[in-house]
Amino acid sequence: MEDNSNAAQDLDVENKDEQNKEEDYKSKYLYLLAEVDNYKKSKEKELVEYIKYSNERLIMDMLKVLDDFDSVLKQDNDEKIIALHKVLLSVLSHYGLEEMEVVGKEFSSDIAEAVATEESEKEKGKIIEEVQKGYKLNGKIIRYPKVKINV
Question: Which ranges of 55-147 would DSSP assign to H, the alpha helix?
């Protein structure tokens, strides 16, 4: 009879070992499945970011053209030039470009670069003039505005 009980105990031990191995494989499988899912999400996020900012170099070069338009518009308000300027801004804004509006705001080096100052009694520390426009691409600052501040 002892042989039967020993054999039963051996079978129990073997069954438990098999169950433990099976659960171990199952947990490893679930862990790897989660890792693959995280990897996919990470790569998708990288791709979205890459696409979002892939035009940055081209748009940075186009800012030179916008600057030229701005300097021409300061001297000549020709309707044709204004219309072309609006079209160019419209196309670039379609790709995520936006002008930064900083005049009248409190100066911070996080949003602008001070290149000149002016002394006045009212509104100290405020941006009073934009020397060169700043731009954001999809919410990221790609060129800080150069400004004159009141001290």
Answer: 56-75, 79-94
- Looking from the CA of 102 toward its CB, the CA atoms found within 13 Å total 32
Q: How many CA atoms lie within 13 A of 10 on its CB side?
A: 6
Contact 125, 107 (CB under 8 A): yes
Task: Specify the DSSP class assigned to residue 108.
Answer: -
Of the CA atoms within 13 Å of residue 119, those in its CB half-sphere come to 0
- Render pLDDT for 131-146 as a digit per residue (tens, 0 to 9): 999 999 999 999 999 9
Q: Tell me the CA distances in angstroms from 80 to 12, 23, 43, 76, one per residue in order.
A: 90, 74, 45, 10
Q: CB-based burial of residue 112 (10 Å sphere; 0-12 exposed, 13-18 middle, 19+ buried)?
A: buried
- What average pLDDT does range 118-131 have in this prediction? 87
